[in-house]
Write a structure and sequence with these properties.
rbstp2171; 11 strands; 3 domains; about 35% helix; 7 helices; 4-stranded antiparallel β-sheet; alpha+beta; 3-stranded antiparallel β-sheet
């Protein structure tokens, strides 16, 4: 007689970018093993593939993981993990006042939200007629930001590579140029033409982009000093 099947619960989550409701289940033991092995390998390609495969396996709703904004992926991954290992995350925060005392804290995953900035805009006006439309970083960039173990590129190279990968369309009233139809070299050459003010507007897109964020109040047990600590990005909540 075969062994019985274990029923797996499904949960509903609203994607921050679109408010679309999706169904997902927690990690299974076999998927936890894959994640642990991937992290231990410190191989970025393996980590990327594993997280992608795990999210696909856990999400019941028909969505394309590669097309999700970075902050959707972070929020989704955090909640899948939360339903798998517990609704609370235990962390140790370094006290801001002395920068050395560790303060244990417990955070409810439901309190961690994607924060949106009213000044955020995907369309960057380069001149009176030309507009640069940006898209959000890909899954690969999400992995690079949170689990990058072998990065030899300079900060300047990383910045320009990131911007080039996030260009969606360049357009004016008469024409439109899709980044998908242009080579990486051409995109880099286009970026090289920008002046400082234009480049700062692009940087503003990234600095104001929606992000996984949570503010926590802590008290240093040694100095009794109270402080606020802002945790941002998935890696801040990994326990």
């Amino acid at each position: 007689m075969p062994l019985p099947k274990i029923a797996t619960p499904y949960y509903v989550l609203e994607l921050p970018s679109t408010s679309e409701k999706i169904e997902f289940r927690p990690f299974l033991v076999k998927e936890e093993k894959l994640l642990v092995l991937a992290m231990e390998s410190q191989d970025q390609k393996q980590i990327t593939k594993t997280i992608k495969d795990v999210i696909r396996a856990c999400v019941k709703t028909d969505i394309k993981v590669e097309d999700l904004p970075t902050f959707d992926i972070e929020y989704l991954f955090l909640n899948i993990r939360g339903k798998s290992v517990g609704e609370e995350i235990e962390l140790k925060i370094i006290a801001p006042d002395d920068e050395e005392t560790e303060i244990p804290v417990v955070i409810d995953i439901d309190d961690i939200k994607v924060v949106k900035n009213e000044d955020h805009n995907r369309d960057i006006k380069l001149d009176e007629s030309l507009v640069l439309r940006l898209k959000y970083p890909s899954l690969e960039q999400f992995i690079s930001e949170n689990f990058d173990f072998n990065d030899d590129a300079s900060n300047v190279e990383k910045t320009f590579d990131l911007i080039a990968s996030c260009i969606d369309t360049i357009f004016n009233e008469e024409e439109a140029w899709s980044a998908a139809d242009v080579s990486k070299k051409e995109l880099q050459e286009f970026l090289d033409q920008l002046n400082t003010k234009q480049f700062q507007e692009i940087e503003k897109f990234f600095s104001t982009m929606p992000k996984l964020s949570h503010t926590i109040k802590v008290t240093n047990p040694k100095t009794k000093k109270k402080s606020e600590v802002v945790l941002e990005g998935l890696s801040s909540f990994f326990a």
